Amino acid sequence: MSFNKVDLSFQSCKAEYKDADVVIFSCPMDSTTSFRPGTRFAGNAIRVDSIGVEWYSPYRNMNLRNFQTTDIGDLDLPIGAIEEALEVIYDTTKTILKDDKKPMMVGGEHLVTLPVFQAVVEKYPDVHLIHLDAHTDLREEFFGRKLSHATVIKRCFDLVGPGRINSFGIRSGDQHEFEWAAAGNINLRKFDFEGLDELCNTLKDKPVYITIDLDVLDPGVFPGTGTPEPGGMQYKDLLKAFDSFEKLNNLVGADFVELNPYLDPSGASNAVAAKTLREMVLLLHRNK
Ligand SMILES: [Mn+2]
After folding, report:
1. In this predicted structure, what is the pLDDT of residue 281?
2. Distance (Å) from CA 213 to ligand 1 centroid
3. How far is the CA of 116 from the centre of ligand 1 (A)?
4. How far is the CA of 215 from the centre of ligand 1 (A)?
5. Please, which residues have CB less than 5 A from ligand 1, an ion?
6. For residues 279 and 272, what is the distance between their CA atoms, to the nearest angstrom?
C-alpha cells in the first residue's frame, strides 16, 4: 500500500511519508449516522480552516515545525458500503503501524474508530483505550446493526475485554448501557473528566490509544456536531485533559470524530477541531 501526496494538508504537515513519525488521515464516512449526517466533510473543512491555527502550541511548548508529520488526506472510501469502508481504514492503519509511524485519524462518524483500534490492538495487544464522549456508544446493536456509531465502544470492548476501556464525560445513553458499564466491564465516568489525571498516572508506561468524540464538549463550545448533548465540557477542560495525556509515555495513536462542519455556519467548531488536531499531533510526537 502506498499513499498519494495531497495538495490540501493540515497546516505545515507536509513531510514525505517515509520521513514522518505521525500520519494524519481522515475518514469521510457518515453512513450509520442516526440524526444529522455530514461528518464526511470534516477532514477537508479542518484542512482549509487550519490556516487560522498557529504552528506553535503554548500549551505543549512545542512547534509543529520541529516535527515530521504528513497528512495523506481523505481516504478513498466506497460510499454507503460500511464493511468495505472499514476495511480500507483498517488496511491504512495497518500500513502506518507496520512502517513504525503513529496514526492520527480524523472522522467521520465514530464507527471509523473501530478499524483503527483493531489494527492498534493487533500491534499492541495490551493497549488501553481512553474515550472522551457525551455518549456511551455501548449498545450491542443499533437498528439491528452491530456496526454503528452507537455500538463502536462495545465493539472495541469485544477486542480487548474488561478493564481496558476508560470513558469520560458520558451523559447520554440507554439505561442498560450504564448498568453494563457499572458491572465492572469498563471504567465509565459520568458528566466530567474527574479521575482522568490519576488514570494517566496508572497507565503511563502502558500503550494507550485515545479516541475523542468532540460532542463531549458542550454544544455552546462545539455546536457543529450531529448529536449535540447539553451539559458538556468546556474547551479548557479538554486542554486540561491534554495536560494529563502528557503523562502517557506510550501513546500509540489517536483520533477525534463527529465534527459536522455544515451545522455550524460560524466556523467556530472547525476552529475547535483544528486546534484539537494540533494538540493531538504534538502529543503523539512527544514520546517518539
Ligand atoms: Mn461517540
Report:
1. 98
2. 5
3. 15
4. 8
5. 110, 133, 135, 137, 213
6. 11
pLDDT band per the 50, 70, 90 thresholds, residue 173 = very high
How is residue 181 annotated by DSSP? I
> What does pTM read for this prediction?
0.97
Q: What are 119's three cell numbers? A: 489494527
Alpha helices, H only, the chain: 42-49, 82-98, 113-123, 152-160, 175-180, 196-202, 235-245, 268-286
Domain locations in the chain? Answer: 17-286
Confidence class of residue 288 from pLDDT cuts 50, 70 and 90? low
CA of residue 79 to ligand 1 center, whole Å: 21
Of 217, 208, 277, 281, nearest to 247 by C-alpha is: 208
Residue 283 has φ and ψ, to the nearest 5°, of: -60, -40
Give tens-digit pLDDT for 54-105.
999 999 999 999 999 999 999 999 998 999 999 999 999 999 999 999 999 9
Architecture of the domain spanning 17-286 = 3-Layer(aba) Sandwich (3.40)
